[in-house]
Amino acid sequence: MRSRRGSMSMQVSLRAPLGFFICASAPWIRTMAAMDLVLAAVGWVGAALLLGGYALVTSSRLPGDGVTYQIANLAGSLGLMVNSAYNAAWPSAGLNLIWAGIGAVALVKLARRAREQESPIDILPLVNEGDSHGRP
What we know:
This protein is mainly alpha-helical and 136 residues long. It has helices at 27-58, 67-86, 90-117; strands at 2-4, 7-9, 13-15, 21-23.
């Protein structure tokens, strides 16, 4: 609170735990606060996906080369990458970008393997010997 020759100007600022200021005189900062909250949540969800997937693979409840684990890895690393980039934690953002790339490559390989294992339906010829009229 400041006073200037008889008039008072008041600006309220609170230091919030996520490292931003909420100012009563600047409503756009409230939008930044909401963005900080959303991106913090994205980061926490990403961390939970990575740690949860790792815990499930380590406890043999989920195969390490399965689609579920690879999707959890990809989504988790993307969440952490977005959060790290937003907070200018560039080494962490770079690491998670590479981690997401590895997860994407693993998913592509799993999709190719699944496609190769599918046996196409063979259409047997109606006449095994000779031409279409049954002649040898």
